[in-house]
Amino acid sequence: MHQQGRTSTSPAFSALGTVLLRMAVLPYGALEDRSWKAPRFDASVPLDELTAYVTALAAHPALDEAVELSSTSLSALTRALRAGERPERRKLERAAVSLTKYALRMTGRPTPFGTFAGVTAARLGSAGEAAGARVGAGHRKFVRPDAGWFSAVAAEQIRTERPLRDLRVVWNDLCYARGDRMYSPWAASVERNTSRMRHLSVRAGRQIGFVRDRAAAPVDAAALAADLAASLAMDTAAAERTVRRLVDLRFLLASLVPFVITTDSLSDLGAACELLEHLGTAREALDGYAQSAVGEGRAELSTALAALRAVRPFPRPPVQVDLKMDASVTLPQAVGRELEECATTLWRLSPRTGTTPRMADYTKAFQERYGLHHAVPLTDVTHPGTGLGLPTASPGGTAGARRRPTELPERLDAAVGELVQDVTLHGAREIVLDAETTGRLERAARLPAADAARVPPDSLEL
């Protein structure tokens, strides 16, 4: 969306000609012949009937492939069913529910995940041009190792066997000193895709001080260990262990994990890995799987998953797949107009104060602590001991904990409450954002001191 000149009633934005379109891989109703006809799964359903349903649904090659890339446990259960095993009823009922949800997603909910859905570039038609769509079967897979799995393998190598000469490291500038301790504030769980505050600390002795100063800019890890040993009269092996330990605790950041992970990145992992054969097998299998059509290439996928898990077990499938749809879509011009109206409405109803109450409190605290009209290093401001810490809206935030009331939420809450009451009294099920309703909410969102003629941004993405 680009800003355009506007009158009081025209949209504030003009839609560009290209739209990123997310599409479910299978057409709506493609799995209806396998769908469950009863209203629910319960004890009244015979076990054989429930087993037959799960087996039939999982037999669809595209759905089975998508499940294997999404749920290790569900994929294992469907394989067991095909092998003639009979799990307990409780597990089978859960599998039936999960598989049904996956089937609904793959046929009608374009969630951008694995091979359930893909993306393509659609075009907004010109005036008088008819809308149209062509969907082929040549969807293209983009395959790569899971970043969490890759990072976990890299971290294990750095801890144990990776030669330091292969690494470059740099001091983590999020670390900070407090008293005689040096703190590493973040701990990442690559298996669970989470990060949390942990404030892990080590004694800020001579070793830490030397490493921090020497690695202020990226440096070869082997050179850092050698300089540490020479400067502090340490044993070389002890200096190397110190460097590895500081990388493991995230006081030092290492270069082994690339910014963009591809199948070629597996070769970097294998430079000093006893499981080099597994990594080579996985790379070859993933490259072959990427060339296969949706629902095919299962042998290559199974080979790759087994090889990657042999290198390191992982709680989820250690492969990520994105899908580019083989589709050509032209949307009617009316869709572009609706997008323009939607963008304009969102902009009109956005807060006029320029900041949230939490950040307003944080700004006030900053001004009281540091004054005005001069810069303060970010690490000093966010230091939890000597600075303000992070705002309360951030993980581990402490500053501005007391949220002050503002006129803006109260006025908006009242206006929205009146709209909800109106539609409830009239028996309606939704609020229609027509010109009158939008104007009503816009007036409620505007504080008295706000500029009513504010200029929209140059661009906006929906």
List the helices and strands and how they pair.
Layout: E1 2-3, E2 13-14, E3 18-24, H1 47-58, H2 61-68, H3 72-82, H4 89-108, E4 117-124, E5 132-135, E6 140-145, H5 147-160, E7 168-171, E8 176-178, E9 181-189, E10 194-203, H6 206-214, E11 219-220, H7 221-231, H8 236-248, E12 252-254, H9 265-269, H10 276-290, H11 298-311, E13 319-324, E14 327-331, H12 333-349, H13 357-370, H14 378-381, H15 407-425, H16 435-445
Parallel strand pairs: 4-14
Antiparallel strand pairs: 1-2, 3-4, 5-14, 6-13, 7-11, 7-12, 8-9, 9-10
Helix pairs in contact: 1-4, 5-8, 7-8, 10-11, 15-16
Any overview of this molecule?
It is a single chain. The termini are close together. The protein has helices spanning 47-58, 61-68, 72-82, 89-108, 147-160, 206-214, 221-231, 236-248, 265-269, 276-290, 298-311, 333-349, 357-370, 378-381, 407-425, 435-445, and strands spanning 2-3, 13-14, 18-24, 117-124, 132-135, 140-145, 168-171, 176-178, 181-189, 194-203, 219-220, 252-254, 319-324, 327-331. By secondary structure, it is of the alpha+beta class. Strands 3-4-14-5 form a four-stranded mixed beta sheet. It is built from 16 helices and 14 strands. Among the domains are: 32-109; 163-254.
